[in-house]
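[job 4471] stage=fold_predict status=RUNNING
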Amino acid sequence: MADRALTQASIPDKDLLFYLSDLLTHFMYVDNLYKLKGENGECLGYLADMINVALEAPRSRKKECYQQIGDHTLFILGMFPESLTYGRRTLSHSYYVDTGRRSYRVASELEPDTESTVVFKKLADKYERCVLSINWVREYTNDPFYQYMLRQFGMTQ
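[job 4471] inference complete, writing structure tokens
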């Protein structure tokens, strides 16, 4: 499904395919979406708090923090964009895009492994197309026919 989503967004890139597939699988568990913790060990739900943790993190943890911020923004924009305007708070879509793109760029600069560096640079360069790919996955999985097929094969309740 992620392969088709990347094709729909005109991104024929296997590195991004594997990364986005892993991201979607990883965030099936909500705890992974809010992996960054505050000083008291509480899960951070606000992007500004996550950025503060990344800024204050020791160099050995910075890459992980910026990757998490990039992943978080990419997933939220792709799967739950309506959450940015939910309730009393309204967050800028462009702020999320800019923060996600910048976070992947910073992670690429902090990563000593050249293979990961290339993937983070691709994510930064093609960030909006990656969001569109995840939007496509969202639309596809919300389609009534697809949900019917999943139920028929016993993959959902």
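[job 4471] summary: The chain has nine helices and no strands.
[job 4471] exit 0
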